[in-house]
Known about the structure:
Layout: E1 2-4, E2 7-9, H1 15-18, H2 36-45, H3 50-73, H4 84-105, H5 110-114, H6 117-136, H7 160-163, H8 165-175, H9 178-203, E3 206-208, E4 213-215, H10 227-238, H11 251-297, H12 301-337, H13 342-378
Antiparallel strand pairs: 1-2, 3-4
Amino acid sequence: MRLEGGVLEEEDDPSQSLLPKAPTSPRRASKPTLTFREQIHEALEEPKTFAAKAFCNAVLFAIVLSTAAFILQSMHSMEAEWYWWPIEVAVVTLFTVEILLRYWVWPGTTFSFLSEPMVFIDICALVPFYLQIIAHYTTAEHLPDLRWMRVLRLVRLFKLGRYSPHLQFMARAISRSLSGLALLVFMLLLTLLIISTIMWMHERGEWDEELNCYARSDKRCSPYQSICHSMWWAITTMTTVGYGDTYPIGLEGKATGASAMLLGIVMLALPTTVLGVQFGSAYTKMKHEDACLNAIKECDTDRILRLQKLTKDLFDYRDEIMHVIPSVQDKVMKELGKTHRDHYFKLGAQGLADEAIASLIELCRTIDDFSSSDIKIMAEP
């Protein structure tokens, strides 16, 4: 609907398509009895029972214990303690039982199970232990040193995301803010490349045969031998870290360094602001969505019927306003037209009428969305 020339033109009436139909049964549809595997799957995904919560807490404790053990093992005085190996065996056993249990109750195919990001993390958390077992019982001389793979134990920290709703919430909010993050990375890389190139041109120096490198006026090898070497200086300068291991000595180089400091602040501040706004907006929207879903899950049929009735009343009021406003506008404009003041009334009245009707329709749609979602949940088997 829209107002043109003081006359309200009505578009297609959305009330019939938006207004949901009430469920035929006054009671919530009962869910079918779940099989044992389905019960286990539901308990692993949404732990509500005491046993499910206890298992999840045991996994969380194992993650923290494993990480603490890995950190303490890095100390020379505690590296050879006997209890590290039993702790690692117990932790890996629990993780192995967990992933096998998840695979057994998985409703999809093996490929879909392995395609899950959290499953990939679970596998990476187990790989170092089993490779260490293989290396211990293998006598082949050509077997490479696999001690570096112990670092993969830190991957177990990512398993916290499976059991922490807050971390999942943060990850979802960040995924919705990827455009701002991409803008930040792009602007930083672009500025980094430009500053590095300019510094390389000014501070590379001349080739010195004796030193076999590019030397500056101080007769020493320049730290800016290439653009790649200059990037280290540029990133430490733009992020205001400034290690001081490399620095320009020429006037042009110092001017470039000053510009890099100022540009670094601007290039980091502007995209960070955009990213912060996007993240805040996505976070607020997701909190609102979760609150609506929680409210919808607790609703009953009586509430749906009340929402339907309210929606129908609002659509009736809308139809009534659509017929009343044009007639009132015509009468007022006729009276004001006698004194040639109808033009000013037309401009103001048209905006107020559009805003009033738009607000009423938005209210109708909001209530209607709640009602439709309620019925959808009630109808689920």
